[in-house]
Amino acid sequence: MKTMNCKQLGGACDKEFTAETFDEIADMSKTHGMEMFQAKDEDHLKVMSEMQELMKDPNAMGEWFENKRKEFKAI
C-alpha cells in the first residue's frame, strides 16, 4: 500500500489517499475533487482551474500524469 496526499496529486489540501495502484489513488483523488467542487472549496477550485488549462494540451497532461505515476512508484 502506498499513500499520497491531495497536494502531491495536484490538489489543495493534505487529505491522504492510500491504495495499491496509482489508478486507485487517482480515482480517490478524482472523487475528492468532485466533493470539493460541490462544496465550492475555493482552494480546490483554484487548482482545478489550473488543471483545466493543463488539459488543453494533451501532451502536457500526459506528461503530468506520467510524472505522478513515477512519484507513486518511487514511494
Describe the structure.
The chain has one domain (2-74). The longest helix is centred in the middle third of the chain and has 17 residues, at 22-38. The chain is built from three helices and two strands; from the N terminus they run ββααα. It has a two-stranded antiparallel sheet. The chain is 64% helix and 11% strand. With 75 residues, the protein is mostly helical.
Topology:
Elements: E1 2-5, E2 16-19, H1 22-38, H2 42-55, H3 58-74
Antiparallel strand pairs: 1-2
Notable characteristics:
mainly alpha
Kindly name the structural category: mainly alpha
Number of helices: 3
Strand content: 5-15%
> What is the radius of gyration?
12 Å
Low-pLDDT regions: none
Largest pleated sheet: 2 strands, antiparallel
Shape: globular
Multimer state: single chain
Helix content: 55-70%
Please give the alpha-carbon distance between the first and last residues.
10 Å
Strand order of the largest sheet: 1-2
Order of helices and strands: EEHHH
- Indicate how many domains the architecture comprises: 1
**Chain-averaged pLDDT:** 94
Number of strands: 2
